[in-house]
Amino acid sequence: MIRRQLYCIACVGTILMLSITFASCKGVTSANSAKDSDSIREAIEAQKMLPDTAYASVEDVEYEVELLDTVNSGELNSLLDPYDTVPGILTFRGGQRRDARKYSGTVKGTPSKIVQDWATKTDARGKWGGGTGWSGQPVYAKWTDAQLDHYRKTSPGVTPSLKNEEIMVGSLCGKVYFLDYATGELSRQPIDVQNPLKGSMGLDPAMNGSLYVGQGYPDHEPIGHLAIDLDCHKQEYMWGRDPKAKRNWNTYDSSPIVAGQFMFWPGENGTVYKYERLGNGKLKMHSALRYVIKGDHGAGIESSIAIYKNYGFIGDNHGDVLCINLNNMKPVWHYDNHDDIDGTIVVEVENGVPYLYCGCEVDLQSGSDKRTYFVKLNGLNGSKIWEWSCPSKKVNIRDAHFDGGLYCTPLIGDGNCKGMIFASFNQLDGKKSSEFLAFDKKTGNVLYRKPLEFFAWSSPVGFYNEKNELYIVIGNSNGHLYMFNAKSGEMIFDQVMSSNFESSPVVVNNTLVVGARDGNIYRFHVE
Prior knowledge:
It contains 3 helices and 39 strands. The chain is mainly β and 527 residues long. The chain has 2 domains: 1-48, no CATH class; 49-526, YVTN repeat-like/Quinoprotein amine dehydrogenase (Methylamine Dehydrogenase, Chain H), CATH 2.130.10. The strands form 10 sheets. Strands 1-16-15-14-13 form a 5-stranded antiparallel sheet, with no helix packed on it. A 5-stranded antiparallel sheet has the order 2-5-6-7-8, with no helix packed on it. Strands 3-33-34-35-36 form a 5-stranded mixed sheet, with no helix packed on it.
């Protein structure tokens, strides 16, 4: 407690000193002083820790925190989102809140079509083939000239095609690919990590040479998560099977995230790992949270952790939503959202309160009334604001089963769609297809439902024009790309552009880069 108080006092002092210096340099008038005071208050508020507490719902959680570093404090040294100030899209959905705000694209006027710019073929291996799977969002790095010069001098993997804008993506063939954003040509030689890569990789926002990669299926041992040193162009760290894990499935679809001086990485083995980041692919494990819900067995975590200040939010394969105090890795509250959660939780702050949006699949439910659920929760205490549900089901196709419900990560609307949130759902009302839905954020009421063909696991992405009107693009497993007028729900483009888009795109200006199950990584533009 003393350490926290000293830390907050230091933060406030620094903010005040910077504000006074800024005011004296600029010769701020009295009219602006009030605005400066508001900014100071906002800056101070942004650095206030959320309380270290445990609500009654945590009584359902049996957990243990393994502390591996007893010298360094586990308290975050900053509550600001480090992804906000770094060019590029370095983690799934752009930042800690997974809200894709920084991740939105831009278009002129009213767009009418989507056009392919390039396609790059990956290798293929085993039953997974190549291309990319779920969730598979690429990293978009935007290097300075100095950083480019550094890599050209240090990295043996660099090719002449390495430019300021670079795409990094993990493939189902078990290789990490590096591509020139403009042309799709190899900017570095691929790195073979042996096992299929399905989830979304992460580039450290300190731009310290660390690329974080989770393996998605155990074709080879060791299997786990790893870090690559971009300077040396090789794997530097590997965490394999965890003998203390609550679940014996050691894969990582979850996208790692940085907060303060730490990096957090949930696994399908039911463990959330907390790392100290040392740069150049080097990691030191600080602590690990392992938990089960009473009367249950370990559940895997495939969705990516979302963060607000020192609270982290995860959803697991048994439908549990867990809030964790990232300072000490202890649970704050627990909420049961009925069934398997694969789509990542999205956080939005309203009047200083973080609210969560979370949906589930139809996977574990029995009986005749199987439903998918979509909820809005108060992130401070786990209380339910509203809940929407709809009948859904599994379907079997060629000896494979496909769960109903939500796989994507929802998209929060802005501009002319500020009060709306969007997501795709599968197999609603007994149909063997998917639908694109718009919800009212305040009430949870459905504003419209638009049919899509087959399944839609890819997350929707947004493009805004000069009038701040939102247009949404979404792919499906039949290789369609759809574009909607987000406000009205009017479909303005529908065309088969590949064979199967499971992956979520990364958006840059009026373009999107996304891989497909046909073995290609594509860049498209909206016009």
